[in-house]
Specification:
The structure holds 3 protein chains of 3 kinds. Chain A is mainly α. Chain A has 15 helices and 4 strands. Helix content of chain A is about 75%, strand content about 0%. Chain A folds into 2 domains: about 35-255, no CATH class; about 275-355, no CATH class. A two-stranded antiparallel ribbon of chain A has the order 1-4. A two-stranded antiparallel sheet of chain A has the order 2-3. Chain B is an alpha/beta fold. Chain B is about 40% helix and about 20% strand. Chain B has a 6-stranded mixed β-sheet, sandwiched between helices. In chain B, strands 2-1-4 form a 3-stranded antiparallel β-sheet, covered by helices on one side. Chain B starts with a strand and ends in a 5-residue tail after the last helix. Mean pLDDT of chain B is about 75; it is low at about 245-250. Classes of the chains: A mainly alpha, B alpha/beta, C mainly alpha.
Chain lengths: ~350, ~260, ~300
């Protein structure tokens, strides 16, 4: 963040479109990666497995949705449905005895197959109506999960996930699961960063900006919408499977209800549509803030001697979560990613910004 | 209005120090090519800039001696400024009758509204014929008439017309301009007309301003403007064809731009 | 199944459907003036129900007074919500606006439950639960009463949109820049429509609160209301009435058959299916206007 841009001059398009046009960015990322790898040895396992690990898994999930909504501009209120498909497919496959690597892949493929159905909706309608259709599809998926014991696992509607293993190596320790989440999240992040630089990424953006204008330029908008939805669902499916396999250890329909769809959408909007770093911030805020706010309020009221009912305390996180969305949309509609960029831009010229004018 | 500047999105300077004046009961035309800042000038006066994230960053706009720069558009309409925006924009899903009613100030009594409507139908008999079909199905000329009639319902004292001739057949343009002139004569209404069709506009107005690149570059009476050779060449289509041999000539002539 | 049974299902379905229309009316009013799909309508309804109960139970107001006061409170609340939040969203992409209404939904739901708690309580309107016999048909009294209220409100709003103020609101929904240019206060009109939608929310809150109790489930009427609104065309009041009846009949008759196949709970499935088919096949609904294209 604190570095000058002076001396960075690109003399060809190839060098300008490198993954890290500014070398300092790359160095910064290397430091962060080292920190992430060292994290299990620095943080207590409570923090590691109940805050950092879910943060990484949800970030990977949110990046997937950001692909469809932020890049390709397709409103998607049924993301949790694709997560559910991925999770249930993978868990069933794993219970069937298929190794986890392939089970995850099956989950991802199944999700992208179902997720492509959303693309057919996107072919016909867009904007508000697409949101409504995806919402309705989400409700259909909720219903199917709740009403088919064969999928959701019997009368208790919960499905035990088998022990997670990769390459024949059983992974049960907190550290191991953390590394799995980290690896997946890093993979998705690198994929998304590279996507921005490719023709595919540019085509998606063209479809977002004006799909018929893109069509006139020879971008087959339906094809790219299909790709966007299937890639988004693939990431969502594997993410959902990992969520069950490494965090919940148990698949239940309410983990994939419509509220989850809204939550992921809230994450990318608070973070900033189409912003990778913003997604990290947004997930952190939406995931952690309600809990933190609840702590603060509970402490505050006990400190002030105002007794609050259990029921009140139970609903405060929801209230805070709603308020966060409203405040962000009002104050910084481009999200935390933009906020970060503003701060960085400010410090880029910091002691000298008065000379600019 | 006096040396007004307009900023769009706090970045783009669309007009830079434009000063124009419309006398009571006068008709003034604002001429200029595409993107010169004519529509922006009108929007600055009517207050519609805020709908497009624009704002007046310098200068002041006076109406009747009052500074109105900070009033929202609906208050300016109440004061008597009405802006007929570009591209007709009638309420397509309402009938012409309802279009007119929507524009009548709420303070008018029911009978006043009826008599005002009758007056408009008097000016535009074509509208009376099609009173109860949806406005979206009217022809382009009828829609333009409806837009002007709708503006007249607001009881304006200054009527601003943004390209009323856009996309209309010449005989319709003549008809509409004739009606505008009649309204101006009958009611002492001031008119500020923005036109690309300079020839038609200069025929009915008394004064004209020429805007280029966000600046007023010339203003004079209509007769003198029509007689001006530069205007003739660049805006009235030119009396004689120029060949590209005279390209130097061209540069010299358009010197006012810089 | 005999014809009498099916017709009984259909009639009761139609009555319930009118109640869905009542809910959808709130969505339609807001969409009509500002093209905002108000996904917070469910939460507003829930809030209205809780406010009625709070006034009548905690402050001891008689029920009719509580409802009247709630109407005023909700009108102001709707007015305020629009002014504080959605006003500034004007002109933003639809994803932002949708998210704003979702955020409002979550916020209102959360704070209502935080204040009053989530346990279900009853409205106790005093309508008897004995069914009403109409020839061979068994009708539910509360549904019938609700349907009457719904129809009365519909007529009132249809008349309202013929008045000058109503015409101005329709003008705003048509083209807000043009409305501005002729001196219509767009802000005021949109806020007014939010206020009216909140008043409609009170009516549906009272009736639905009586039918299914006052709790979080009131906010879940949103899916059905949205389906009705979309089926009716999102901006058409007449459309909302007819679509409500259609959906009510399909849902009631359809689910009684489908429940036998899938073992219960097929109502939501039918509603979601109707929603999907409507949007895919006829996005502007039964009576929605498509933009007029002159040839």
């Amino acid at each position: 963040m604190f570095y000058p841009l002076a001396g960075v001059r690109h003399q060809s398009y190839v060098s300008d479109s490198k993954l890290f046009p500014v070398p300092t960015d790359r160095n910064l990322l290397i430091v962060l990666t080292v920190a992430a790898i060292a994290a299990p040895f620095l943080l207590s396992s409570l923090y590691l497995n109940s805050y950092v690990q879910p943060w990484l898994i949800w970030t990977a999930l949110a990046l997937g949705l950001n692909l469809a909504t932020g890049w390709a501009g397709q409103l998607h209120l049924g993301y949790a449905a694709t997560m559910a498909v991925g999770a249930y497919a993978a868990v069933h496959a794993a219970r069937f005895g298929i190794p986890w690597e392939f089970a995850l892949l099956i989950g991802g493929l199944a999700a992208s197959l179902i997720g492509s159905l959303f693309a057919f909706a996107a072919l016909r309608v867009k904007g508000l109506y697409l949101a409504i259709v995806t919402l309705a599809m989400q409700f259909v998926m909720d219903w199917v999960l709740n009403h088919s014991p064969a999928i959701s696992g019997g009368s208790h509607a919960s499905l035990q996930s088998p022990r997670f293993a990769l390459l024949g190596q059983e992974i049960a320790s907190g550290r191991g699961l953390y590394y799995v989440a980290l690896g997946w999240c890093a993979l998705v992040t690198v994929f998304m960063m590279n996507l921005q630089r490719t023709a595919l990424g540019r085509a998606l953006v063209a479809v977002r900006e004006k799909d018929y204008a893109a069509a006139i330029l020879g971008v087959n908008s339906f094809y790219y919408k299909l790709i966007a939805f299937s890639m988004c669902s693939f990431i969502g499916g594997i993410g959902g499977a990992l969520l069950v396999a490494t965090f919940f250890f148990l698949a239940a329909p309410e983990q994939f209800s419509v509220n989850v769809s809204i939550q992921v959408l809230a994450m990318i909007i608070v973070g900033g549509l189409g912003s990778i770093i913003g997604t990290y911030f947004g997930v952190a805020l939406i995931l952690l803030m309600p809990g933190i706010a609840n702590e603060i309020i509970a402490n505050l009221t006990s400190f002030l001697g105002l007794p609050l009912g259990n029921e009140t305390l139970a609903h405060i996180p929801t209230t805070v979560y709603g308020a966060l969305i409203i405040i962000f949309l009002l104050v910084e509609p481009l999200g935390l990613g933009k906020l970060y960029a503003n701060i960085r831009d400010y410090f880029l010229v910091w002691p000298f910004d008065q000379f600019k004018k | 209005m006096n040396s007004v500047e307009v900023l769009y999105n706090s970045v783009m300077l669309a007009i830079k120090g434009v000063s124009i004046e419309v006398p009571y009961g006068g008709m003034v035309a604002l001429l200029g090519s595409n993107g010169a800042g004519k529509s922006t000038t009108l929007k600055a006066i009517s207050g519609l800039l805020s709908a497009e994230r624009g704002k007046v960053s310098r200068g002041e706009i006076r109406f009747d001696g009052r500074v109105i720069g900070d009033n929202p558009p609906q208050q300016r309409v109440g004061l008597g400024i009405c802006h007929v925006i570009e591209g007709r924009r009638v309420f397509e899903h309402l009938t012409p009758d309802e279009n007119l009613e929507a524009a009548a100030p709420m303070s008018l009594s029911r009978t006043r509204v009826a008599s005002e409507k009758a007056r408009i139908y008097d000016y535009f008999p074509r509208l009376a014929e099609r009173k109860s079909s949806l406005a979206g199905y009217l022809s382009g000329g009828e829609q333009q008439m409806l837009a002007i009639g709708r503006a007249l319902m607001t009881q304006p004292r200054l009527l601003m017309l943004d390209e009323p001739s856009l996309g209309l057949a010449p005989f319709l343009v003549a008809e509409i301009f004739e009606i505008i002139k009649r309204i101006n004569r009958d009611h002492g209404l001031s008119v500020l007309l923005v036109e690309q069709n300079a020839l038609a506009a200069l025929d009915i107005v008394s004064r004209g301003y020429l805007i280029e690149n966000g600046r007023v570059v010339m203003h004079d009476t209509a007769e003198r403007l029509k007689a001006n050779s530069d205007i003739q060449e660049f805006y009235l289509g030119g009396s004689q064809a120029k060949s590209f041999h005279d390209i130097k000539h061209y540069r010299r002539r358009k010197r006012w731009l810089s | 199944m005999d014809i009498a049974y099916v017709s009984e299902l259909a009639v009761n379905g139609a009555l319930t459907g009118l109640l869905y229309s009542l809910f959808a009316l709130g969505l339609v009013l807001i969409y009509k003036s500002s093209s905002v799909p108000n996904l917070a309508q469910g939460a507003l309804t829930m809030l209205a129900a809780y406010v009625v109960l709070a006034l009548s139970r905690q402050l001891g107001f008689p029920l009719w007074l509580a409802i009247a006061v709630t109407t005023i409170i909700m009108f102001l609340a709707g007015f305020g919500v629009e002014k504080v939040t959605l006003r500034r969203m004007a002109g933003r992409p639809i994803v932002m606006i949708l998210m704003m209404t979702l955020g409002l939904d979550i916020f209102i739901r959360g704070s209502t439950l935080a204040v009053w708690g989530g346990t279900s309580r009853s409205m106790e309107l005093g309508v008897s639960y004995d069914p009403l016999f109409l020839g061979p048909l068994l009708l539910s009294r509360i549904n019938l009463a609700g349907a009457c209220v719904a129809i009365a409100l519909f007529v009132a709003f249809l008349l309202f949109f013929r008045t000058r103020r109503g015409i101005r609101l329709r003008a705003i929904s048509d083209d807000y820049v043009a409305s501005w240019s002729i001196g219509i206060s767009v802000e005021h009109g949109v806020a007014l429509s939010w206020g009216m939608a909140s008043v409609v929310a009170v009516a549906s809150a009272v009736i639905w609160g009586e039918i299914q109790g006052v709790d979080q489930s009131l906010s879940q009427l949103l899916l059905k209301g949205l389906t009705v609104a979309v089926l009716g065309g999102l901006d058409s009041i007449v459309g909302a009435i007819l679509a409500g009846i259609v959906l009510g009949v399909i849902e009631n008759v359809g689910s009684s058959y489908l429940d036998l196949v899938v073992g219960g709970g097929s109502r939501d499935l039918i509603v979601a299916a109707v929603l999907i088919f409507t949007v895919m096949l006829r996005p502007h609904g039964l009576f929605g206007r498509h933009d007029i294209e002159r040839v």
